[in-house]
Design a protein that fits this description.
With about 210 residues, the protein is mainly alpha-helical. The protein has helices at about 5, 20-30, 35-40, 40-60, 80-85, 90-105, 140-145, 150-175, 195-205, and strands spanning about 10, 15, 70-75, 75. The protein contains 9 helices and 4 strands. The model has no long low-confidence stretch (mean pLDDT about 90).
C-alpha cells in the first residue's frame, strides 16, 4: 500500500485525504484547526480555530492573564499547565517564562532572586517564590484580586487545551469511517425495497 493510500480513508462514500498525518497532528497542536486546514478540511478548521482559541482567550482574560504559567515547585505544582499547553503555541510563553524563573530561583531557599525580571512585561510568568499555602504570596493576591474569575479562567484554559487534544487526534486519525449522513450501505437491503412478489413469497414460505 502506497503512502497516499494509507493516508486516504473513505467516510460516508467520500474519500478523505489526510495527507501527512504526523505533520497534520503537529500543525493541529501548534494552532487549533491548522492541521485540518492543511488537509483541506476548511470548515472544521475554522470551527476549531474560533471555538478553542476564543475559549482559551476568554479564560485567560477572566483570570487577569495570570492563570497560564509553568511551575513545578513545592507549594506551587501547576499541573494545569500540562493541559493548557494542549492549545498549542499560545501557551508557549509560559514555558519560557517558567524556565527563566527556575534559573532565578535559589536551590536552597526556593526564593526568587531579587534581580529577576520576567520577559514581555510578565506575560504568563510564574508567581514570585516561595509560594506557601495559606500565606500571603503572589498567587494569593491573584485570587484576592480576580476572585471566582481566577478559578473560572483556569478551567476555561484547561478545557480549551483538552478540546484541542481531541482535535489533534481527529487530524491524525481522520473522521469516523462510518456512514453519518443517513444513507444506507450499498450491500444492505431494506425490506421495503424488495419487489412485492418477493415479499409475498417470503410470507407464504413462513
Amino acid at each position: 500500500m502506497s503512502p497516499e493510500e494509507e493516508n486516504t480513508i473513505s467516510v460516508d462514500g467520500r474519500l478523505v485525504d489526510l495527507r501527512n498525518r504526523p505533520l497534520a497532528a503537529l500543525l493541529a497542536w501548534l494552532i487549533p484547526g491548522a492541521g485540518h486546514y492543511y488537509q483541506g478540511r476548511t470548515t472544521k478548521a475554522a470551527i476549531f480555530f474560533v471555538c478553542i482559541l476564543s475559549t482559551w482567550i476568554l479564560g485567560f482574560g477572566l483570570g487577569g492573564k495570570h492563570v497560564v504559567y509553568s511551575s513545578w515547585q513545592p507549594g506551587d505544582k501547576r499541573w494545569h499547565y500540562f493541559l493548557q499547553a494542549g492549545a498549542g503555541v499560545v501557551a508557549l510563553p509560559a514555558y519560557l517564562q517558567g524556565r527563566r524563573m527556575n534559573d532565578a530561583t535559589d536551590a536552597l531557599s526556593l526564593s526568587t532572586n531579587p534581580n529577576y525580571e520576567p520577559l514581555w512585561g510578565g506575560l504568563m510568568a510564574p508567581p514570585y517564590r516561595p509560594v506557601i499555602e495559606n500565606q500571603a504570596d503572589e498567587v494569593a493576591a491573584w485570587y484576592a484580586t480576580y476572585g471566582a474569575g481566577y478559578e473560572m479562567g483556569t478551567w476555561y484554559t484547561v478545557i480549551a487545551g483538552l478540546l484541542n487534544i481531541l482535535v489533534i487526534y481527529d487530524a491524525y486519525g481522520g473522521p469516523l469511517s462510518i456512514p453519518i449522513s443517513g444513507r444506507k450501505i450499498e450491500d444492505e437491503t431494506d425490506p421495503d425495497d424488495e419487489p412485492e412478489d418477493e415479499r409475498e413469497t417470503s410470507k407464504t414460505s413462513t
